[in-house]
Amino acid sequence: MYANPPVGDIADDWSFAVNEYHVDLHIRIAEHVRCGLLKSEIEKSHVLVFNRLYDTTRGQRILPPNFQQYLINTIAEGTP
Q1: Kindly report the CA angle at 57 between 54 and 58, in degrees rounded to 5?
Q2: CA-to-CA distance for 55 and 16, rounded, in angstroms?
Q3: According to a count of CB atoms within 10 Å of the terminal CB, is the N or C end of the chain lower?
Q4: What SS3 class is residue 70?
Q5: pLDDT class for 16, splitting at 50, 70, 90?
Q6: Mean pLDDT calculated for residue range 11-40
Q7: CA gyration radius for the chain?
């Protein structure tokens, strides 16, 4: 999703969806490792709201290629 951002009217909806998926990714990781404290802290941090505010005020973020892919690959390979 980060690699192919839309332009125009749908960009706001896309930005929200990307942030929602991003938070969900980290919550799922916390659930998978059975770390309730981490999950709770992610939920309490309201990172989705802060990322959304940042995106709204600064415009679309430019993120590195394959953002989060290293994390996903490491988990998928079983070598975290």
Answers
A1: 75
A2: 9
A3: C
A4: helix
A5: confident
A6: 85
A7: 14
pLDDT tens string 27-62: 999 998 899 999 998 888 877 677 767 766 776 666
Q: Which of 23, 44, 31 is nearest to 75 (CA)?
A: 31
The percentage of residues in the chain with a pLDDT greater than 70, rounded to a whole number, is 74
Q: What is the distance between the alpha carbons of residues 33 and 50, in angstroms, rounded to a whole number?
A: 25
DSSP sequence for the chain: -TTS---STTHHHHHHHHHHHHHHHHHHHHHHTT-HHHHHHHHHHTHHHHHHHHHHHH-SPP--TTTTHHHHHHHHHT--
Side-chain-side CA neighbours of residue 35 (13 Å): 11
Give the residue extent of every domain in the chain: 14-77
Distance CA 43, CA 75 (A): 21
Do the Cβ atoms of 1 and 21 come closer than 8 Å?
A: yes
